[in-house]
Every structure is written in C-alpha cells, then in structure tokens.
Task: structure prediction
Amino acid sequence: MVDDICAIATPYGSGAIAIIRTSGPNAIWLVNQIFRGKDLTKVKGNRIVYGHIVYNNEIIDEVMVSIFRGPKSFDGEDSVEINCHGGVFVTHEILRVLLNSGFRLAEPGEFSKRAFLNHKMDLTEAESIMDIVNAENKLALKSSLNALNSSVHNLVSDFRNDLLDLLAKIEVNIDYPEYDDAVDVTHQYLEPKLSKLLSKMDVVLANSKVSKIVHQGINTAIVGRPNVGKSSLLNMLLDEDKAIVSDIAGTTRDIVEGQVNLDEISLHLLDTAGIRRSDDLIESIGIQKSKETIEKADLVLLVLDVSSELTKEDYELIDLVQNKPHVYVANKSDLAAMWQKDDIIYISAKNRQGLIELKEAIYKVTSLDTFNVNNPSLNNVRQIDLMTKAKAALKNAYYSCQMQVDIALIEIDIKTAFDCLGEITGEAYPDELITALFTKFCLGK
Ligand SMILES: Nc1nc2c(ncn2[C@@H]2O[C@H](COP(=O)(O)OP(=O)(O)OP(=O)(O)O)[C@@H](O)[C@H]2O)c(=O)[nH]1
Ligand SMILES: [Mg+2]
Result:
C-alpha cells in the first residue's frame, strides 16, 4: 500500500526558502486541510498557489504550494511541495503539523524509490540524481546529467535487446523445430554475434574505468623515501602549508590528506611517511601504512630527489609501484641534477614549478586525456561490476560456441548476461537491494 509521506527537502539551516515535500494518494487532500487559500483539491497539476498554513486556527507561515498530480509528478504519485520561509523553527513547525495531519516521515530516498517503482526512472537514472548532488567537478556533473537523460539506460537497453533477440531465436528453434521460416541458430550464426557484443562491452568497460574516476576523483598516494619532498609536493598541489615540511628525514609520521581539483578532476591526495628501513616503532608503523596506501591508491606519485643519487630504497620503490598507474616525479630540480631518467616529470616543490607538466602526466597515465562525456560508459562500481559479470557469461557462451556445445546450454549463459544487465537498470533486482540502494539518498530525495 502506498501511504502519504513528507520530508524537508532542503538542507538544515536558515535560508530564503525551505521546501517540504509530500507525496501519496491523499497528499493534496491532507495538505488542503491545513491550507488557507484556494481549494487545493480543485487545483490542476503543475500549478503554484499562494496561501497560508493554518493549524488550530493559528497561522504557521505564509507559503507557496506546488501541486503535482500523478502520474505527471517526480515520483508518479499526487504530490504537494510547500515553499515556506527558510527558518529552522518554522520549517519544523510545518513538518510537525503535517505529521499530525496524517502524513508519516519519509525514509531516506523514499521519493526516488517511489519514482523507480512507478517506472518514472530506472536505477541508473536514480543513481545519477545522487551523482549530480555529489558532483565535485564539471565533467562529473555533465556525465551525471547525461545519465539522468537515459544515456546509461539506453546503452544497457541496446545490449539487452540484442541478447533478447538471440534468446528469442534460440527458443523458437528449440520449441518449433518444424517451423521453416525461423533463423537456424547454429554455432556459426552465434559466434560472430557474441564476438561483436563482447568487443562492444570491452569499449564500454574501458570508458567506464575513466568515467568512474571522473565521478569519484582519483585516490592519489604521494610516496618516496624520506626527505625527497613529498609533503612539499602536497603543499604545492593544495596551494597551502598543510603538511609539516622539514629537513629532518622522517618528518611525516601519519598520513596527511588533502583534496584538490586539477582543472576538471578531483584528486584525493594522501601524503605518506617516507619509506625506509627503521628501528623506530612509530616510524615503522607509518611506513607500513604508506605501503598499504599504495595498494589502495588509483594513482601513485613516486617522488624522487634529483639533487642526490638514486638509492637502493628508490629502486625498491620503483619496483613496488610497477603494477599501479604511476608518475615519477623528480623533485628539487632547482638544484643541480645528479641523474636522468626517461618518462620523468621535473618539479621544484619549493619554488612551485612543474605543475602543468605534472597535471598532463596525471591525465595521461589515468587515460583522462581520452575522456569524453559522450563516449558510451557506465558511471559507478555497481554498474561496472554487473557488466563485467555479463561479459564473463557471454565469454563463456562464446567459448562454448567454439567448442560446439549444445545451443540449449549456451542459451543459459546468454540468459545470465541478460539478467546481469537487467540488474544495472533495475529490471531484475531483488527488493532488499533496492531498499539498500535508495537508503543512500538524503532525506527528502
Ligand atoms: N631545494 C629544494 N628543496 C626542497 C624542495 N622540496 C622540498 N625541499 C626540502 O626538502 C626537505 C624535505 O621536504 P619534505 O617535504 O618535508 O620531505 P618529505 O618527503 O615529506 O619528508 P618526510 O616526511 O620526512 O619523509 C625540506 O627541507 C624542504 O624544504 C625543492 O623543490 N627544492
Ligand atoms: Mg613529509
């Protein structure tokens, strides 16, 4: 049963206006009981009406209410949005009145969940609303808006339609072998079709890897042996003196974090303790943490000191970062260089030089230089995981084709791929996961 819900949709605090959202089959009738002005039950949808919220004959506030009639509303239900003065007290007074008048408080994300359940949007579109709210840069915002306008939905639906077409043809072959007009689904027929779908998925997954860092930012670990200038680099990137810098090796003991936007991309920076052999307990713990940080990072900036010879520790670190996207940063380039190396970015953190070159290198190593919001891509880990599963199932189907496995068995893998893709858009999704997903939304969304 759908009941009548309400929630404050604007952030806590004072502002010019606040919005209280309501939704449900009786929402308009219920608000009308506490509204002095026009009879809201007679107002058409998509109209705004001026009036007062009145409770026990007392005026609570002067308001504008927007009337939406389902299914032409955000969540598909009848809905009233009350625009009141943006004070904390007055907003909560109106909420209290609503709760006393037959509404219950909405759960986090419940409006969006209703929109999903009423087929106003699919899961990828619902997720994009969250992404728009959380966008930290222009590219993330643009790509989230594309997803809200069904870019991910259409991409996934195209794959599903192709798979559905194959499934239908196989079914006809199995169920009506005597039907001459049907396409004969042989291994030769399936193999090129599966191969084409697999290549298309590869392209989408490669684009999605980049899209994911556009949305979530790049977790960037700054590592190196002690005293090479890691904290100085952090300060240079942040343009503030956040981490302590000194000529004492082992200055940074714990991880220092910072956040910066490089053009259109967010970097979550982690300045780590210098890595060397140490008998100092506290320093050793810091060093262990540095190694763990490398493991978790999307990108490693390995800082080397160009003014002194490379040491054994430097070479060990060079080895350690090989299987991670990394940039070698040669710091202290204001001093005489003691060595040279290919693919290295020269900076002077002290003089704040080399930022443009470093930025270019970061874009290149993370493939951000190839990113285009219009490339077909998915936007988050959930979507990427499901397409990866779909791809694995299709790959099985493809190999089975090559080995001339019975088509009825191949059909099972194709069906698995079809279902995984359905989970991306929410067309095949268990109830409890839907609830868990929408709970991530803010109240009133
Ligand atoms: N000449 C010169 N000195 C620098 C540069 N960057 C850093 N330094 C100096 O190098 C020393 C170490 O700098 P930090 O930034 O503290 O080095 P770190 O790598 O964070 O050191 P630990 O935290 O001890 O591992 C300080 O005395 C800095 O002033 C640079 O670009 N040029
Ligand atoms: Mg440091």
